[in-house]
Amino acid sequence: MNRVARSRRFRRERVVPWSMWLRLAFGLAIVLATLIGAAFAPAITSHLPQEQDLTLRLLPPGANPAYLLGTDALGRDIASRLLYGARVSLLVGVLAVVIQGGVGVPLGIVSAYYGKRWDSLIMRFADVQLAIPVLVLAIAILGSLGPDLVKLIVVLGLTGWVTYARVARASTLSLRSGDLIAAAQAIGASDHRILLRHVLPNIGTSLIVIGTQQVAAMILAEAALGYLGLSVPPPTPTWGGMVVDGRDYLAFAWHVSTIPGMAILALVLSVNLLGDALSDWLNPLTRVQL
């Protein structure tokens, strides 16, 4: 049976649960809406995020057609700040995960493939970092260096590599004891070729799933640091900063904090649902043979 026929047979025999499609559709819809809103924010909203009008401060949603989601304590349009703030959340979430994978995956593969001293050195260093919570370490570093977008991305990236390293190490260990690596070594393949052509493609599925989950975690971490004033400094809007801006007005202007808080909830939930659906799709245990 050729490759095309095998592919067609696989698609016929694979039964995907409807719940997976529901999670995928919901998560993808929210993520795409956020991406489109962040990318085309200047065209969608007629207000700049820093534009102030104290005569229109604390307007509730719907009170003024020009300010659909209301205004904050300085009369700034919450809708425009929400769209521009999405740029920070998405940028931090994606780039921090790229750094985490770029550091953690090679270290995990090297640790498992070469073993002995390399494994002991890398894993002991990972154990030390695991003893310190990521947010605590990020707060300590950003508190010393000062808040900044580049610093925030680098700090979250370099403090979260351990997850990738441990997953890559476990997956590589299982491959190393199999016939694939032994056959490649028997024909004289170099370590560099084995790692790039045989190990990395076979552990990519696990890393992709972990990556989607880590994007949600980094978005949440950025919001938490923004709430503490350790994310991007003003006047750049961030969702965490918007939540803290409205904490003194919850009794009579609930929308100032609640709307960005719901945006954080929706985006993190949608990314997690995407990761969960992707995990089900790539997991061979979910393939039901008819």
Give structural notes.
With 290 residues, this protein is mostly helical. It has one domain (17-286): MetI-like (MetI-like fold). Helix content is 72%, strand content 0%. The protein is built from twelve helices and no strands. The two termini are 19 Å apart.
Average pLDDT over all residues: 82
Instruction: Count all strands and give the number.
Output: 0
Spans of at least 5 consecutive residues whose pLDDT stays below 50 are none
Shape: elongated
Would you tell me the structural class of the helices and strands?
Answer: mainly alpha
**Secondary-structure element series:** HHHHHHHHHHHH
Computed over alpha carbons, the radius of gyration is: 23 Å
Level of helix content? over 70%
Quote the beta fraction.
under 5%
Regarding CATH, which class? Mainly Alpha
Distance between the termini: 19 Å
CATH-defined superfamily: MetI-like
Question: With helices defined by DSSP (H or I, 4 residues minimum), what is the helix count?
Answer: 12
How is the main sheet built? none
What is the number of domains?
1
Give the topology, please:
Layout: H1 3-13, H2 18-39, H3 41-44, H4 78-114, H5 116-130, H6 134-145, H7 149-159, H8 161-176, H9 179-186, H10 191-227, H11 239-245, H12 255-282
Helix pairs in contact: 2-4, 2-12, 4-5, 4-7, 4-8, 4-10, 6-7, 8-10, 9-10, 10-11, 10-12, 11-12
Properties at a glance:
MetI-like fold, 290 residues, 72% helix, 12 helices, mainly alpha
